[in-house]
Design brief:
There is one protein chain. Helix 4 runs parallel beside helix 6. Helix content is 71%, strand content 0%. It folds into two domains: 149 residues, Serine Threonine Protein Phosphatase 5, Tetratricopeptide repeat; 29 residues. The protein is mainly α. The termini are far apart.
Length: 191
């Protein structure tokens, strides 16, 4: 995948709504301070530094959902797709009712051109949406994705299993190629 296919440095942090999270009172002072610092670094566009700071926060408070979301955004901003997805999905596991966690997973999947997973995450986000603003954000994201699909190149879906007929044809072709190769090798040894 080309890095040009990934979101621009500030695209995820700006378009996923303002990154305003309440800081839980049950966190250690170090975790709260690290989270606030990491959040400020993301908003300033300093994603690499935010990753370091937010990683410290997660070491102090491994079940801090908002820190996982912010760390996921920071990784996405640096084009580290797998860690980004890991942290965003971890946030959805920690807090299954979090609209923002599901919304961010949907957004990242759409940016990575994985629409099936994006629509599935968007559906989960809709179930978690409580405020009209959340529904509007989701509607805008889906509108943008549908426009991208309509204007883009049709891409194949690789999640459908092969039919029995296609497997027989492919297997027969492979068997014919193996027989031809063996015949060629035997003829070359005879000469």
């Amino acid at each position: 995948m080309l890095t040009s296919d990934l979101p621009a440095r500030s695209e995820l942090s700006k378009s996923s709504a303002p990154l305003l999270f309440p800081v839980r009172g049950d966190l250690s002072i170090q975790a709260r301070e690290s989270f606030q610092e990491g959040l400020a670094l993301i908003q300033a566009g300093e994603a690499k530094d935010a990753i370091v700071v937010l990683s410290r926060c997660i070491q102090s408070a491994p079940d801090f959902t908002e820190a996982h979301m912010c760390l996921g955004v920071a990784h996405a901003m640096t084009s580290s797709v797998y860690p980004a997805m890991d942290h965003l999905e971890r946030a959805t596991e920690l807090e299954p009712g979090s609209f923002m966690a599901h919304f961010m997973v949907a957004q990242l999947n759409f940016k990575l051109r994985i629409p099936q997973k994006g629509y599935a995450a968007a559906e989960r986000a809709l179930k978690c949406a409580r405020a009209p603003q959340e529904r509007r954000m989701l509607a805008q994201l889906l509108k943008e994705e549908r426009a991208r699909e309509h204007n883009g190149i049709a891409r194949p879906w690789f999640n459908k299993p092969f039919s029995f007929k296609s497997l027989v044809v492919l297997g027969g072709g492979l068997a014919a190629a193996v027989v031809a190769l063996i015949g060629h090798l035997m003829l070359s040894h005879v000469r």
